[in-house]
Amino acid sequence: MENRSSVNAISNKRLNRSNYEDKLLCLEKIIDNLDDGVLLTDKNGKIIIYNRAMEELEKRKASDMVGKFIWEAYEYFDKNKSEHMRVLKSGSPITKRYKAHAYNEDGPVYKLYSTFPIEIDGEIIGVYSISKNETRLQFLLSEITEMKNEFFRQRILKSDDINPNGTKFTFSDIIGSSNVMKKLIQEAQSVAWIDNNILLVGDTGTGKEVFAQSIHNYGNRNSEPFIGVNCASIPENLLESTLFGTVRGAYTGALDSPGLIEQAGSGTLFLDEIHNMPVNMQAKLLRVLQERIVRRIGGSQNYPVKCRIISAINEDPFQLIENGQLRQDLYYRLAGYCLYIPPLIERENDIFELSEYFIKKSNLIMGKNVIYMTDRLKEIMKNYSWPGNVRELEHFIASIMIRTNVNDKYLRAKNAPKYLINMMKANCGNYYEIQSGSNLTLQEKLDSIEKKMILEALDSNLWNVTKTAKELGVTRQSLIYRMRKLGIKRKENRD
């Protein structure tokens, strides 16, 4: 009987342990084998869980993270900048963000994540984040997009094909199979499903609105309106009423009219050339975005701001801030995520894929039968810098197609307007003189010189970005932007 009692006592102990310790061990195993990254901090901000998926996402080791304060682990000099500490203090979760908190040898690590407080008996005892690993999904989406691109290249969309939501373009309409464009499309698809405001940075004619519409159509707002406006095309005295709306009698001729922010509803408002908006108007827009309410001019009723803002600029944003053309606080409000759209010259052989598309489009419109391009024309096009980018290329192809004989199957340089060819030849002449026989374009050479200067300055300053920026005479943000644009990777000993 005593032996049986002893066995029962041991069993009860195991049972009691199962209800607590074994359960904790099981939960730790489960968390460690999840596909999503999990990071847990205690009420003091110390990391106590950093699972295997987070290791894979951020290319870090749990042994280097667990036990550290989160602001130290992620190299925040001010602990109040840590979102975990903000959630711990406020008790309010931060959901569906797409942002870089970590850097590795390949650059910033962007991930979709949400951060939640853990509250027991009215006290917040910890904060945890769940980060989505989208690598497999992005791979599949990329394959699907490539298949759709191939399909849509076989047909030409008519210019009046407008979707009910006010858009014309999707990712399938973006022509080009260069690695830089494939990566950009994957990035854009990743941010399409979240609510962050997006800033598109790219030269004139690179297709910023095409990307804006594609992002809208790819995400969960695709059934809502897409409304675009060029901030440079509207006079200053009309811009405020255009965006915010008016009530009758606010000024002579004013009617009850909703602004574009209201009209966009839960959809997307695209603000092109946002840096050309007057600075005082930028301040008013910032207030609306911060408070998430808009009031019509002359009115007293507030309307909630539900739309997502996608904005675009065609210059270095940090240079614009430095020059006083763009408010820094507005930039950070608009740039929840920043996408850099490369110029045509950086897109490898996309120029000829695009040309093929524009030729097919012109064949359909003009009743021509062009299939090929002469080698001479290709050589001129290849060595031209294309300052107007895709828009200039489309105009160039159309100009030659107009002068091409109906029965001619070749697109020929001799059929281009003389002023265009002279301009391109002059550009090519400078190109050959500067390159001294190399195969680089002028833009590539300039980028190469800039990259060399930045790398030399970084090396001489032991990769301290702040000191390097000071030496080069630019702001720290501007230098980081140029490093990303030129593909300069941060080293382990970054500042």
Automatic annotation (TrEMBL):
Chain ranges of the PAS domain: 27-86
Species for this entry: Tepidimicrobium xylanilyticum
GO biological process: regulation of DNA-templated transcription
Residue span(s) of domain Sigma-54 factor interaction: 174-402
Gene3D superfamilies according to UniProt: 1.10.8.60, Homeodomain-like, P-loop containing nucleotide triphosphate hydrolases, PAS domain
Family matches, as InterPro entries: AAA+_ATPase, AAA_lid_NorR, Homeodomain-like_sf, HTH_Fis, P-loop_NTPase, PAS, PAS-like_dom_sf, PAS_fold
Pfam families: AAA_lid_14, HTH_8, PAS, Sigma54_activat
Official protein name in the record: Arginine utilization regulatory protein
UniProt keyword Nucleotide-binding, yes or no: yes
Residue ranges of the TM segments: none
